[in-house]
Amino acid sequence: MKWNLIIFDWNGTALNDLPLVYGSVCSIFKTYGVKPPTLKTYREEITADFMKFYRHYGIPKTASHNDLNKLRARYFEKNWNKAKLRPGVKLFLEQLDKIPDFQTAIVSAEITEVLSQRLCGFNIIVSLLDKIIGNAWDKEKALLDTIDTLGVKTENAVYVDDTFDGLTAAKNLGIHTIGFTAGYNTKKRILAAKPDFPNSKFPNINNFRQIAKIIGYVNNIK
Ligand SMILES: [Mg+2]
Q1: In terms of domains, do 159 and 60 share one?
Q2: Most buried among 35, 49, 72, 120, using CB within 10 Å?
Q3: End-to-end alpha-carbon separation of the chain, Å?
């Protein structure tokens, strides 16, 4: 078995925007005069149903979903540059481009225009990627679309994500999974999704060099 497609997630995986995201969380709590939960707690407990998290840690019921989104958007606008591309992403894409018949894709829940702006801002050569999908709220559907359009079998595809939910979506489709342990979720939560990696041979996957090593290992590239 060899892989010929790697799909990776953007927020928290290729893009280190956790300082930006957690900064926005703290600023929201500050606005309501409530002490914010720690970064560790945030990484352990946050899910797509974020209102539950905010209410649990003391944000009043009078604060609506819309209010919190507005505060978040305002913080993001002012602190846009707190998000950085992970080191080694460009080199990683260049290396993969040299492997014959190997395809690469990004599947992200990020707003498509924002994703394009980011890729452009980091001078990521978009032509090195075979597919870029934004607005992928439904990760399972977007992953399925990606492998279908690129003509790849699930057993030859691998997906890299930094959350329990993202990894579970790929696992539901039978796509191989690499859990990125330095993103939105703690390693404990990543392991709870039972990804193929990390494992005893690759216990910590917190940079793109590690991911390149795994591809080399699976595809037997020296
Ligand atoms: Mg992510």
Answers
A1: no
A2: 72
A3: 16
